[in-house]
């Protein structure tokens, strides 16, 4: 897996190699680093992708394992001196990267790779994923901050005119760097959130997505078909619902302290202010719920434990839970659930948990 540390190490080596006074020892260290972990080589291949985006020809190509194995240059003398030795006294040195043209190509590749990932205002495509129970802090190249919760997946594409993100699973809290010329759009399930400079949370469950705004204002659009009274498109959140025929999208402006939800088969629904204030409690290590359907609470538990808990019937999933979940001790919460609600927890021979009415 390519970690942020590996990316930083890769950028360091790439920038070192392109220097006019690059030392032969730098090439030796770089080759050892390349062979130490397959992720190192993958990080370097990111340079090639950047070069293709910049339309820079990739010369020379990445050395293969056989070429690296045949490299006998040890850094004890200059490359020219090594070349002057009788062939019987040395293995063929791998010096493809020592030419001026190669150094220039590496310079462009390294600069492109570094700018693409670390400097504000640049573009590129990125993917972030967290494991069950893991949380990750991310700073995007254009300056926005993302806190990615457990068992979540976020894809990011930055272009000169748009910051496009897609949350395909889990939950994320966004603190958006203000830039009116580059809207910040997050897609989740069948809806999207459009912001300029604000902070908001997007929480996905099996059939519902909740958007809660903590600072500024966003526009939330749901693409679900609707048949009843829904919030009219682009209206303030507190606008009176109006009858609509079946349609493909609805939108509402959501301000700080407000929250909305949308389901796969329905339109936008305003949530109580209390739900908005509790939406980001997970950032402090605890989730707080107020009259939350049990199915959604258990979906959160799944993300923190990595173990799915079956709900035997819909009526059990509809039971409402009010209370606090310690994210570091989900097991204790599960054991105490039968005290808070009229349910019982059943474990089969394979260790699979299910919850049913008591």
User: Which overall shape is indicated by the principal axes computed on the Cα atoms?
Assistant: globular
The gyration radius over C-alpha positions equals 27 Å
Number of domain units: 3
Look at the structure and give the mean pLDDT.
Answer: 76
CATH topology of the largest domain: Jelly Rolls
Beta-strand content estimate:
25-35%
Strand order across the largest sheet: 1-4-5-7-8-11-15-13
CATH top level label of the largest domain: Mainly Beta
Distance between the termini: 45 Å
Largest sheet: 8 strands, mixed
**Mind telling me which CATH architecture of the largest domain this is?**
Sandwich
Q: Tell me how many strands there are.
A: 22
Q: Return residue spans where pLDDT drops below 50 for at least 5 consecutive residues.
A: 55-62, 91-121, 226-235, 238-248
Query: What is the structural class?
Result: alpha+beta
Helix segment tally: 10
Helicity, in percent?
25-40%
């Amino acid at each position: 897996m390519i970690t942020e540390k590996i990316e930083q190490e890769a950028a360091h080596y790439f920038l070192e190699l392109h220097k006019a006074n690059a030392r032969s020892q730098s090439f030796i260290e770089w080759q050892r680093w390349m062979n130490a972990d397959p992720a190192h080589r993958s990080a370097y291949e990111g340079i090639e992708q950047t070069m293709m985006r910049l339309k820079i020809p990739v010369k020379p190509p990445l050395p293969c394992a056989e070429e690296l194995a045949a490299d006998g240059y040890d850094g004890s003398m200059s490359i020219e001196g090594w070349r002057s030795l009788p062939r019987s006294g040395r293995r063929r040195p791998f010096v493809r990267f020592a030419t001026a043209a190669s150094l220039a190509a590496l310079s462009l590749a390294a600069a492109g790779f570094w700018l693409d990932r670390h400097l504000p205002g640049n573009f590129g495509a990125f993917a972030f994923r967290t494991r069950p129970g893991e949380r990750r802090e991310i700073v995007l190249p254009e300056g926005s901050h993302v806190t990615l919760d457990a068992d979540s997946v976020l894809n990011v594409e930055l272009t000169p005119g748009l910051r496009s993100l897609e949350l395909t699973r889990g939950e994320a809290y966004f603190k958006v760097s203000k830039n009116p010329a580059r809207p910040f759009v997050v897609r989740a399930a069948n809806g999207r959130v459009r912001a300029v400079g604000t902070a908001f949370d997007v929480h996905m469950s099996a059939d519902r997505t909740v958007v809660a705004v903590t600072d500024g204002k966003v526009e939330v659009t749901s693409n679900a078909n609707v048949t009843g009274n829904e919030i009219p498109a682009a209206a303030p959140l507190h606008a009176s619902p109006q009858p609509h025929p079946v349609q493909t999208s609805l939108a509402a402006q959501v301000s700080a302290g407000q929250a909305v939800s949308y389901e796969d088969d329905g339109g936008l629904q305003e949530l109580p202010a209390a739900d908005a204030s509790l939406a980001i409690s997970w950032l402090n290590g605890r989730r707080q719920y107020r009259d939350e359907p049990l199915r959604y609470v258990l979906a959160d538990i799944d993300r923190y434990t990595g173990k799915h808990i079956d709900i035997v019937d819909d009526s059990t999933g509809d039971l409402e839970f009010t209370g606090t979940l310690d994210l570091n001790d989900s097991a204790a919460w599960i054991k105490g659930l039968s005290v808070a609600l009229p349910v019982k927890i059943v474990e089969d021979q394979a260790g699979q948990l299910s919850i049913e009415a008591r």
